[in-house]
Predict the 3D structure of the following.
Amino acid sequence: MKKLLFLLLLCFGMKASAQTKALQTLRIALPTIQCDMCKNKIETYLKRYDGVTSIVVNVKKKEAVVKYLSDRVTNEDIKAAIATAGYDADEVTAEPDGYNRLPACCKKPDAAKKQ
């Protein structure tokens, strides 16, 4: 009986450790964010994605730190989601439709002056 219990605990321990190996951390440069509205929009948008476990956006450093499960979502998917929301993410530029929907305070300073 003790051997069976030990084997069950060992199997559950191996399964739990296999799941944590998929957790990855990604730092993304966000050169176009301007304010806390940008921060909230990106964090809210990415929290909807299956596999994203946490997202922290730092407006002063203009970067985001994303923790995600690599077996559910890729770093390219995360960058594309940020671009869809209207912001540049590393080498991925913002999609025009998403950018045009942003409020004036969240747009690039030179673009906000033109309006």
In short: The radius of gyration is 19 Å. The helical segments are 2-20, 36-47, 75-85, 96-100, 109-114.
